[in-house]
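Re: that backbone. Tokens:
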């Protein structure tokens, strides 16, 4: 690929990375990294890798050289912290009892998980299908929308990510996944995301968000007349946090035009945004909800499509014929995860600590001109770095420099769109740990700004 796309994650070939490795990687780690590059196909966003890990526990990951980093990235699987003892014990016990469930059979723990999800999900989101990964769950949701509506077109967002399979990159809106991939799914139409800071409709120049982007979704629903579903992350990982009215308008528009609304909450469901489900921040209920990542407790790959029970209309089709569909081990991990979140009040903790963190980010913004915008909901936070607050030119080089400086001081996070620092720590993080991490981030931004 001739051009390095700045999108979902940070770029894995850069001079900042090279320099960091030169300063931090010893011979043993270097040799494992070289072997990794020898046996894994290279791909952007992963191989070649930055470093090697030997342990992860709580909010920390530990590299082979014994350095520990607070993990504000964690692929968003770590709501309950890494190696959570309740999750690990549930998995160990389940391995002894029933490690796999052959097709044609069900098992107690899978049924318990489906029931638990129906209990905690709002409205009539009462019927699930499970699968190993998020992209597969999104694929099932699109298939169900096709079957239920008899239509095939979708509306989704530019810049969005729904997984790396061919169907999900068609719906997704990032060039790093789509470009030069050949024909994508027909009928996958795209709209600009509700990004107030960089609104393509120029809402800032009209004195703030006036929801033209939501009207545009309805415009397409009406023009086309045969859209099966609007599918979106309720909050993009950048993070863009739309007004509640945005989703309320789109919910009403979907109803008017016979389209389903599918929410992909894979990275932030189960507490991260200060609500058990992200949709609860917006006062609407989609027809289909997709969750994943942390559902497996940061150990087991597990995702779920949770649908309105009225959409139980595809009994004669194979929607999600996945080998590990009703994995007893995965379901045991998920039940332990949800119980841990509930018993330890992690949803309220994410809400309160997230507000504290956002307040601190706002204070940083007031004295650090490199910070163009700060955003967040619960423990889903972003700091957008810009070269100039008027032009809002992305400060991507600077963001990379901040990321590697923070890594050297023990805080790991990812960049998105090249210039946005995203902070998604485990929900188990304490206020003291959060303050230590934010002190480091602030110090690193100040250092890069001064250099
Ligand atoms: C919003 C969103 N949807 C879907 C996916 C895909 O999930 P998986 O990697 O489990 O296929 C991701 C993963 O990052 C995601 O963030």
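Recovered sequence:
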């Amino acid at each position: 690929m001739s051009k390095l796309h700045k999108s979902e994650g940070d770029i894995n070939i850069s001079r900042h990375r090279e320099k960091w490795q030169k300063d931090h990687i010893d011979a043993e780690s270097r040799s494992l990294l070289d072997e990794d590059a020898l046996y894994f196909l290279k791909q952007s966003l992963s191989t070649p890798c930055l470093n090697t890990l030997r342990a992860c526990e709580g909010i920390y990951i530990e590299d082979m050289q014994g350095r520990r980093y607070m993990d504000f990235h964690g692929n968003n699987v770590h709501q309950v912290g890494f190696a959570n003892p309740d999750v690990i014990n549930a998995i160990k016990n389940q391995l002894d009892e029933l490690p796999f469930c052959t097709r044609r059979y069900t098992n107690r723990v899978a049924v318990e998980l489906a029931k638990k999800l129906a209990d905690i999900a709002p409205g009539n989101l009462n019927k699930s299908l499970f699968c190993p990964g998020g992209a597969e769950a999104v694929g099932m949701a699109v298939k169900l929308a096709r079957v239920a509506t008899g239509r095939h077109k979708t509306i989704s967002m530019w810049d969005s990510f729904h997984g790396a399979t061919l169907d999900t990159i068609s719906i997704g809106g990032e060039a790093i996944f789509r470009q030069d991939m050949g024909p994508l799914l027909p009928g996958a139409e795209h709209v600009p995301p509700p990004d107030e800071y960089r609104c393509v409709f120029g809402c800032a120049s009209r004195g703030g968000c006036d929801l033209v982007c939501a009207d545009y979704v309805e415009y397409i629903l009406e023009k086309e007349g045969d859209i099966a579903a609007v599918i979106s992350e309720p909050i993009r990982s950048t993070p863009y946090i739309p007004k509640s009215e945005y989703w309320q308008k789109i919910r009403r528009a979907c109803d008017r035009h016979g389209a389903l609304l599918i929410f992909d909450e894979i990275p932030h469901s189960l507490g991260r945004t200060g609500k058990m489900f992200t949709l609860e921040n917006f006062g609407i209920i989609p027809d289909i909800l997709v969750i994943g990542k942390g559902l497996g407790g940061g150990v087991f790959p597990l995702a779920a499509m949770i649908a309105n029970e009225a959409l139980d209309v595809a009994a004669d089709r194979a929607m999600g014929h996945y080998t590990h569909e009703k994995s007893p081990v995965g379901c045991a991990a998920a039940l332990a995860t949800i119980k841990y979140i509930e018993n330890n009040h992690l949803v309220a903790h994410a809400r309160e600590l997230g507000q504290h963190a956002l307040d601190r980010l706002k204070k940083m913004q007031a004295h650090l001109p490199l910070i163009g915008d700060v955003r967040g909901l619960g423990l889903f936070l972003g700091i957008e770095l810009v070269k100039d607050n008027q032009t809002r030119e992305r400060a991507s080089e600077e963001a990379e420099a901040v990321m590697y400086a923070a890594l050297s001081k023990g805080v790991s996070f990812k960049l998105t769109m090249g210039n946005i620092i995203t902070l998604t720590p485990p929900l188990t993080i304490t206020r003291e740990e959060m303050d230590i991490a934010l002190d480091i981030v602030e110090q690193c931004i100040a250092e890069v700004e001064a250099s």
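The pocket of pyridoxal-5'-phosphate is lined by residues 133-135, 138, 161-163, 233, 237, 264, 266-267, 292, 303 (CB under 6 Å). The first helix runs from residue 15 to 24.
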